[in-house]
Amino acid sequence: MNQKKVGFISLGCPKALVDSERILTQLRTDGYDITPTYEDADLVVVNTCGFIDDAKRESLDAIGEAMAENGKVIVTGCMGNEAEKIHQTHPGVLSVTGAHAYEEVVGAVHQYAPQVKQHDPHIDLVPPQGVKLTPRHYAYLKISEGCNHRCTFCIIPSLRGDLVSRPIGDVMDEAQRLANAGVKELLVISQDTSAYGVDIKYRTGFWQGQPLKSNMKSLCEALASLGIWVRLHYVYPYPHVDDIIPMMAEGKILPYLDIPFQHGSPAVLKRMKRPGNIENTLERIKKWRSICPELTLRSTFIVGFPGETEDDFNTLLDFIREAQIDRAGCFKYSPVEGATANELDNPVPEEVKEERFARFMEVQAEISKNRLQQKIGKTVHVLIDEVDEEGAIGRTKSDAPEIDGMVYLNGETELSPGDLVTAKIFQADEHDLWAEMTDFRDDI
Ligand code: SF4
């Protein structure tokens, strides 16, 4: 495994701790490992405190220790305001930034300990442009690392190893701190969210003194208690996912599932070595929708996988029509160095891939358009992401940031990112919605 490791020293007050938490969450999301030892770390981040002289001295000492023990040190936090003093005392420090400079710190880590892996749209957990730490009202919460499956197009297991679930108490502490820091929406991510806890035999952990089982259902229940939006990504349609649907129907977690189906033809899925059985999946989706009609399904698919016939492709189109997949990303298959799928026979010619990609997108756009049309006239909750001179732009519970659609509230220039409002939808296209604000809410 060539995952880069970052050491982290967090000094100072609870506000500094929240900064540390945001930086650590982001680094974990970007695929960095956090290590407790200097020797293991590719570099060390020191989040300093500059409140009183003693705290400054302690910060300078901590930087000195990290320099001596590791040698590659990035400094952030309150004492970052005295960059000159830090550089004078410890001339080898790589970068110095002040408090709340999440983006700069994460950028410096990427610069001085770059990841070797290239972005892979089939399997990467975050969008290729990376995650913006602003707006700060949503955050990614990574619950595990690695994967127990061996999909033939994927090299994650050889890069990151088998599934390692984070202790549930740690995950919940991080979630709580993010919520306390004003985060209104948590996006739960991992390579296989529904497998959470398998590797640790669903052992019982503790959070706030209470026992809590390390499984997806308990995690969702605990996250629901935070009173903010909780959105699940990379869920596989295993039977136990059924347990989560009533929680969605009751409004405890968002009625949204991101399931990377990758295909709809059993023959192709078999060659991909994908988990799950697609015939049962259609039944399962129907059942979910009968329990929670609000459910939005997002997925990703690969067209042109080796051996994909015209029949297979038509089966895929039938699948997305029947499952009424609300949102879908589609990728033309391309080999990834080291993946076993590279040895499969019958590669699909590029022009056929192109043609299937275009047909897929056309069918998907039609489905999405019809489903969004049905929302016209409805009143929905909208979380505001940005505000410009034309109005506010937000998302409904059906839309994940950066990958799904937007809701435009023209004229609402007084709102701020992170506000939650209710709005009545009056227009839709195949991707986005337009709505009129009806109410400001201070609950979530
Ligand atoms: S489930 Fe398959 S595609 Fe996803 S990370 Fe695991 S091996 Fe890769």
From TrEMBL:
Its EC number is 2.8.4.4. Binds 2 [4Fe-4S] clusters. One cluster is coordinated with 3 cysteines and an exchangeable S-adenosyl-L-methionine. Catalyzes the methylthiolation of an aspartic acid residue of ribosomal protein uS12. It catalyses: L-aspartate(89)-[ribosomal protein uS12]-hydrogen + (sulfur carrier)-SH + AH2 + 2 S-adenosyl-L-methionine = 3-methylsulfanyl-L-aspartate(89)-[ribosomal protein uS12]-hydrogen + (sulfur carrier)-H + 5'-deoxyadenosine + L-methionine + A + S-adenosyl-L-homocysteine + 2 H(+). Residues 373-439 form the TRAM domain. This is Ribosomal protein uS12 methylthiotransferase RimO. Belongs to the methylthiotransferase family. RimO subfamily. Its cofactor is [4Fe-4S] cluster. It is found in: Cytoplasm. Signal peptide: none annotated. It holds the Pfam family TRAM_2. One of its GO terms (cellular component) is ribosome. Keywords: 4Fe-4S, Cytoplasm, Iron, Iron-sulfur, Metal-binding, Ribonucleoprotein, Ribosomal protein, S-adenosyl-L-methionine, Transferase. [4Fe-4S] cluster 2 binds at residues 147, 151, 154. It is an enzyme of class 2 (transferase). It comes from Sessilibacter corallicola. The keyword Ribosomal protein applies. InterPro entries: Elp3/MiaA/NifB-like_rSAM, Methylthiotransferase, Methylthiotransferase_CS, Methylthiotransferase_N, Methylthiotransferase_N_sf, NA-bd_OB-fold, Ribosomal_uS12_MeSTrfase_RimO, rSAM. Residues 4-114 form the MTTase N-terminal domain.
